[in-house]
Amino acid sequence: MSIENIPEIYLKNKKGSPDLFVYDFKMTSEIVKIKVNLGMNMFSFLQVGKKQVHFAGISVGVNKEQSLLLKKGNWLWTELLDNEAIYNCKLLFFSEKKLQDFLENHTLNQGIRNDEKPFFIIKNDDYILSYLNSLSTISQAPTIFMENLLSIKFEELMLYLLQKYGKPFESYLYSLIVGETSTFKKIVESKVHSNLKLEEIAFLCNISLSTFKRRFSSEYNMAPGKWLLEKRLQKAKEILEQGELKPSDIYLDFGYNNLSNFSIAFKNKFGCNPSQLSRKAY
Fold it and tell me: Which of 73, 90, 246, 273 could form a disulfide with 45 if both were Cys (CB 3.0 to 4.6 A apart)?
């Protein structure tokens, strides 16, 4: 799985890295789980389709009713079409300098910080929809005017969101500047019950797969594959014992490509087929 460097791949015809940059992303075929090296903080205004993003310690999914403000870093994301067979997302990138200038001019509580989430969910209300239309109009202006207009529009957007979401949004903005990188164990343990592969978890840790395996063995005194297998099968067992789901409902969630492989691993671990366990729960 290759790594997409964003926004660099959208800046091929531009000199340097601008402080503000808008890009209209459209597609007609689904992109499932790509590695993204996001080099700038970014608004992702989803207009048509669905999007899911795996971060170091958490995941989030949104549809066209919501948009995301995303912190720069290494993330995994999936972009899906909707019933219209199209995906449309307007991306607004901004530099740390632009963010710092805004915070200095419009906020007072510089001690606020919130490092827990690398994203902030925004509701696509009437203002946001109107704002996106105005960005489309700006993109048609001559370059010398577009840069100045975009700077004004960025400040307008930030003021609106600050007024609407208050302290939580202000706190999130400060975390984009002073946020700390999640620890290795926090990332690993947040993905125990996901269906992510070792390579994908290593990517979220921002290290190579070989380095990830060495670091894991040092931290847990066990190979990562064996450790994750045991943790995920134990969780699967707990879910099946509740009697609400069948093995066919959950095997994909725990990293297995087919029900047969899941059943074999489960029986090797617990001495019985998962289907037998789920039947006992009824």
Answer: 90
